[in-house]
Task: structure prediction
Amino acid sequence: MDVFSKRKYLVIGLFSLVALIIVTRLFYIQVLDSSYKISAASNVLRREVNYPARGVIFDRNGKMLVFNQAAYDVLITPREMKPFDTLSFCRIVGVEKGELVNEINKAKIFSRYKPSPIIKQLSSQTYAVLQEQLFKYPGFFIQARTLRQYPSKIAAHVLGYVGEVDQKAIDANRYYENGDYIGRSGIEKAYEDELRGVKGISYKMVDVHQMVKGSFELGRMDTAAIIGKNLVSTLNGDLQAYAERLLSGKVGSVIAIEPATGEILVMASAPTFDPGLFVGRERSHNYSKLLIDPNKPMLNRAITSSYPPGSTFKIANALIGLEDGVLQTVRFSCSGPASTPIKCTHNHETPLGLISAIRESCNSFFWQAFRAEINHFPTPAEGLEAFRNSLLEIGIGKKIGGDLYGETSGNIPSVAYYDKYFGSGGWNSLTIRSLSIGQGELLVTPLQLSNMVSLIANRGYYIDPHLVRSILDIDGSQDSIQFEKHTIAAGLDNYEMIAQGMEQVVESGTARLTAKIDSLIYCGKTGTIQNPHGEAHSAFVAFAPKINPKIAIAVYIENGVWGGRYGAPIASLIIEKYLKGRIASKRQHFEDEMVNSDLISTMKLEGGD
Amino acid sequence: MKTNNNIWLNLDWATVLLYLLLVILGWVNIYAAVYSEEHQSILDAGQKYGKQLIWIIAGVILAIMVLSVDSKFYAAFAYHIYAVTILLLIAVLFLGKEVNGAKAWFEFGNIALQPAELGKFATNLALAKCLSQFDFKIQKMRSYLILVALIAIPSILIILQNDTGSALVFAVFVLVFYREGLNGMVLFWGFAAAALFILSLVLDQFKLLLFLLTISVAAYGVLRQSVKEALIGFMSIIGIFGITWLINRLFSLDGKPMELLVTTTLLATVLVVIYGILRRVQQVWRILLFFIFAIGISMSVNYFYKNVMAPHQRDRIDQVLGIKIDKLGKGYNVNQSKIAIGSGGFIGKGFLKGTQTKYNFVPEQSTDFIFCTVGEEWGFVGATVVLGLFLILLIRLVTLAERQRSQFSRVYGYGVACILFFHIAINISMTIGLAPVIGIPLPFFSYGGSSLWAFTVLLFIFLRLDASRTENLR
Result:
């Protein structure tokens, strides 16, 4: 043994020390630090999303209102591209060479590693040809997507549109991710969950070159895409198209309901737009163009705008008075234009009862009726409170839609409102008299007006108005949707009295010149709403036929002069079309007049002065 | 026939078993590293794992051949083998084939040979032969020079092949010399120089100088075995720095902190010299020598680092020391390697389930980075077991070396242990970011015939010597 043999311990010690250091380090990166596991997963896992086709929407007769069409985008990853025969490529997809080069350059500027679309929305035919030739173009690939298509370009407001989700929607629902599409308005929004289906997620393992090597965990984490459900809407597509045609050149809306079911047959708002404008490449351009249009074409005036109802409100007033038992037999006198405190604009018999008052739209009568209704209670406040509650009960001044997106509630001034304005006790029925004829602070939506006549048509109930009647399951079965029924038991005689008055409006009253339809007995009520900013608004509500009604309708035309001028012709034409199938030749001139009249450019001229 | 029988009886079967175990583990891990669905058979000779099996079988035959040779042959022909290897190393510079920027390979048809691998055991043999000469005294300057020359010649030739990693291995022989009686201070200065090298790169000049001053004063205290003197030293330096700072402020000299510290250092040095002369304190000169040596090293590091080292070598060191972090570029390999090992967790992902290596995220995953597969698929447990097997092998080799009757066999045995140690330590450390990326294989694990055979020959020559350990070889 030599003198240095002890030094073996130092050598072994050094070996062991280094081993210990390595083991410590291994323990740290393998056991303590979890960040490497995350990095490894992000290296290897690629999440692929399979988007299901969105549900199709049909009208009540099975006509397609919106469907999907496959479209194909060509994308490139600039880094993977190799020189290729641009000429033959351009010939296949049908673009100019200059445009192609331009798009490729844009893609290169965007990113050399990430794919960007260079040609959007190729047709299936072009796609089929290109797919076969694609191997010649490394770095190119095709992505399928579906686009909403609108075969008849109608009901833009009702159907709504889809758009990319925003951050708010992503925060609200973890289902959505950047780049997903979501219903933004209308049925697309209200029935988003049913229409969109469920996207499928699959996890793929990729190697360092991003080549897919297989599924992750044998696909146990993958979910299959579930296609969206189809909807049957309550709309009558033909009638909707007709209503939109009648509204052309005007600002206003038409809403028609099937009284027995609450199903909305027509919901048209003017001016309108082609729903196809919100699809595809030009979407954002079109969107901003519509957004800055002063006539606000994107506004669904049938449910989003609220107006003073004018004389159409006399129906509600009458119903409340009948409920209170103050109107059944009374006769009030009228001095025509000399009446106080509210002038009556019509000359007619006096004194007169309820039915005649409706026929003649007598302001004096309804002011006195209103006073009786309010004074029926010990104080004006209690009287107004009861009046207001009765209105809410019949669906005025609150949201009533069963499945409507973007509905507003309107406004019925409350006791608190007048107390604030005049001081508590500082007002009485005379102070708030304009409520009696549907003017003043009272605001209702055209939807509420149509629902009001629907209630009269049903003689005592209404069902929440709605746009979708059933959801079609993938297996073909239909799920009908039930909506709430509201019964307002005011006595059948009372409803008949109002119906009687409304019948006379059409037959011999304020609407006789423009609304009368041969061999159809139906009920209506005009409204002319004073407008401090210009021409009075024109309103007309109706249900038809009088017995066993099939349609209840409200028409509201801004600056439409008076109720019989635009409201009554449009409503009666729609009723005639719906119930008779065609317009009688002697009424044809109304149709031409409505379709061709142009209130918008007239307004513009006035504005220009 | 009698001698032959003795060999098989005296052979250290424990080491042989360890060798076989490691080689088979390596083979299995190569299979996992390059596994693909299309080529599932581990015996597929078209794939790396199939080839590795052929290399293993050839290695075993080679081992038997090595064992069959008389032990006296290795001692007798040590210098001849060394000379032939040197000639091959020179020849490869002219006739070799360039692979990955290193001109280090001879090609014979399908088989490529790397003379640098021969260099390891040839140099080891030559050193053993040299050290075991009866008139050789390691403490003499002439002996140093001979040993340094024996190492330097192959190292330089290998560096000329542009294979710095393999050349660095030769530095590990200093451990062998230490065991054979080299002054411990050489080892100390060696480590000190290495530590200084790293510190000079990591610390800025101010901190480095402060560090050296502190170390020097502390070391002085240790040498004098007096806390009091160390404290006086510290107080003096702080005092001088305070005065310098005060003068700087009083006369608005605008001196930067570094300039103040340099001034302090110079003043302190003058004081120390005066103190040393007046009090005749021996230790002062040693500390001063250390201090000047340290300053010299750290000053030359920057020059060496910027002007002598190749850019890619600088990058690798920068990545390990954290001077520059570049996970996608220069540091990509190591980062991916750490991800692979780190994602293995405690028990690993399981055989053939390692995604990082299988899908080629780790470059060189079957050769230099084979340990990633171990770490990823077998986890902390598997990695520790492999490391443990290596440590057992190394300790076994040291124990065997110590039982040799002849110094020749002992030196050679230590050489084998140290060469394996260097490879294992550096290779595994580089996969987990503890050492710069030096392209050296993990013994018995990494794919490739040349390195496997070289390690086999290296190891089995020692086992052959050990089998005849009672002989006295020179």
Remarks:
- The radius of gyration of chain B is 26 Å.
